[in-house]
Predict the 3D structure of the following.
Amino acid sequence: MKRFLLVEPDFPIPHKSKNHKDFLPIGLLKIASYLRGQGHKVSLVRGASVNLEDLKWPEDIPPNEIWVTSLFTYWASYVREAVQHYKTKFPNAIIKVGGIYASLCPSEEVKEYTGCDEVHQGVLPEVEAYATTHFPAYDLIQDANPHPVDYQVLHASRGCLRKCPFCGTWKIEPEFQAKESIRGEIKRSKVIFYDNNFLMNPHIEDILKELIELKKQGEITWIESQSGLDGRVLLKKPQLAKMLKEARFRYPRIAWDWGYDQSDSIKKQIDILVKAGYKSRDIFVFMLYNHQVSYEELERKRVKCWAWRVQIADCRYRPLDQLYDHYSSYKKSQDATAYYIHPSWTDELVRQFRRNVRRQNICVRHRFRFYSRSLESKQVARDIAGNLRKLKDKNKIIRLLEAEDIDYWFPDQLYLSSES
């Protein structure tokens, strides 16, 4: 029997989001379950300088091995801090680093940068196999975090056959592996699929039928696909949209990563989802910005999404091998020494596009015709705000706004330079 300490570094995730569905350390929870099954003692800590009083064995008995996970490459410094902290505290323990950063960068560089003893790249096949019949160790986070996890994270497949240059999935998981069934793995009524391409699974219809049956039996409340849905698959198999709706998949997300000339295809994908019963305002379109597509073209895409009344999930591009990202939305400006700025973009345009998307999403969600900072902060008299919401004619709205000296921003307008 060995003693394993599993570590999630002190990533810059707000405490209230530690158990958020997008940041759950599911890999560590699977590993914990697997190691327990081998008869080992396992503890999990979340943070580089956390108090170790919650160890599952006395603190004066050191762990034999410490496994540190990693996320984005630009959070590599947090991994290094964790390694150095536990290396000092437990000098005789073997420290291993795995996860996304460890898998995308050369292992020798990871060892040199973090000071760890070993690097694991990719997934652990034996752990993934074990997880199909044994539930991950959710108890390790339930006990230590005030925000309960009432959902489960699941993979119906690993990898992706697409080779998008800005994505690291196909580098970390080069072989696409798909399950034929996931029914036996469903233990909770809320399910988050972490598949990188859920619809690409050749057994997708069988899996959706399983989920639909579980929904009918009252065992499923809702489902989400964290990485979105491959709209190109939907175009070939539109019947999947209805099955997704029947299975209670919520907030479907598709991707519009490239140019405006894809708009016809994106509209067809949205139409398929709407025909299946989804409201357009509950559909999200991923948009990569600060990348090869110019700000001007992104603006045209944004306005098109407004015409369709769908929301935008804006994704700021960072190079896969960059080990830092100090972008701050609270600062008025930063330069390329703080974070990556594409040659065809500027810090000003990055911030402008984010503002535009945020304002537009508010308009879509609440069915507003325009955005106003004053209205959002409730600085406008209630009767005037009510009149503005009732008006349908844009010119009348503008006249009232200007008469009351209220700031405004219309999503149907292209903002081709830094404005408002």
